[in-house]
Specification:
The protein is 50% helix and 14% strand. The chain has helices spanning 15-30, 47-52, 72-82, 96-103, 116-136, 156-167, 181-189, 201-236, and strands at residues 3-6, 37-41, 61-64, 85-89, 107-112, 142-149, 177-178. The protein has a 7-stranded parallel beta sheet, sandwiched between helices. α1 packs across α8 (201-236) and α4 crosses α5 (116-136). The longest helix has 36 residues, at 201-236. The radius of gyration is 17 Å and the shape is globular. The protein binds adenosine-5'-diphosphate and magnesium ion (MG). Keywords: Coiled coil. Residues 193-238 form a coiled coil. Pfam families: VirC1.
Length: 238
């Protein structure tokens, strides 16, 4: 049911990777309960669709490919009525498809590498979200996700940016997506990080860490969605 939109005006920020990693983890968790995950690819490059069309994509991921500004709202409507979670992977521009998708979001994830220039792009994306919120006449929850970190430990620049986001009242995910080969490999080999097989102990360890990173990311997504639902209920009850 909830719709999670991946947006950032910057190409290469990590939208598709974050969307595919989250879709895979939610699909793994939902498989036994018969929960489907809808993955809507609204980027003309169709990178997440290419992944979902490869062998090894979890069966409970339902792909909506080639979503355009004309079809995206219909795709979201249809997906919301059939899936436990709806994930929308967007193009790195402020198009009407982006504004439409964001206006329907329960949570917008803004992937951002922890550098000053990328943070500027994140702020641009936030302006687009605020514009969509005005069009929709409601608040749209969003949070910045640091991606492609070289290690689990955040750099000095990262800390500085985190403090700046915090000062501006911008929500930042506690977790980050670490730069890991496993997160790249799934796009070449298909399947999920859990179906990758390391050829040596070091690779196996790295795959395990990537899998754990995906779990923590999915947990924080669910926590944020729940917090926003609780907030809405409290507001409705005065
Ligand atoms: N956490 C990560 N670990 C390793 N590589 C990553 C990670 N996030 C993104 N990348 C790589 O960075 C490039 C851009 O990422 P992508 O998710 O396609 O960004 P976007 O969808 O925002 O354009 C791709 O080559 C992808 O494999
Ligand atoms: Mg992409």
């Amino acid at each position: 049911m909830p719709t999670i939109v991946f947006a950032s005006s910057k190409g290469g920020a990590g939208k598709t990777t974050a969307a595919v990693i989250l879709a895979s983890e939610l699909a793994r968790q939902g498989a036994a309960k018969g929960i489907n995950i809808a993955l809507i690819d609204a980027d003309p490059n169709q990178h997440s669709a290419a992944w979902a069309n490869k062998e090894g994509c979890p069966e409970n991921i339902k792909l909506f490919e080639n979503a355009t500004e004309e079809s995206i709202l219909d795709a979201i409507d249809e997906a919301e009525s059939n899936a436990g979670f709806v994930l929308v992977d967007l193009e790195g521009v402020a198009s009407s498809a982006v504004i439409g998708a964001v206006s329907r979001a329960d949570l917008v994830v803004i992937p951002c590498q922890p550098s000053q220039n990328d943070a500027k792009e994140a702020v641009k994306t936030i302006k687009t979200i605020q514009y969509s919120a005005r069009v929709a006449g409601r608040t749209i929850p969003f949070a910045v996700l640091f991606t492609r970190l070289s290690a689990a430990i955040i750099t000095k620049t990262g800390k500085h940016l985190a403090a700046e986001f915090d000062g501006a009242g911008i929500d930042l995910f506690e977790c980050s997506l670490i730069d890991r080969e496993a997160f790249k490999s799934v796009f070449s080999y298909g399947g999920t990080v859990n179906s990758l097989e390391g050829s040596n102990k070091r690779e196996q360890e790295s795959i395990k860490k990537a899998s754990n990173n995906a779990k923590i990311f999915a947990e924080e997504i669910k926590r944020k969605l729940k917090n926003h639902i609780d907030q809405k209920k409290r507001a409705a009850n005065g």
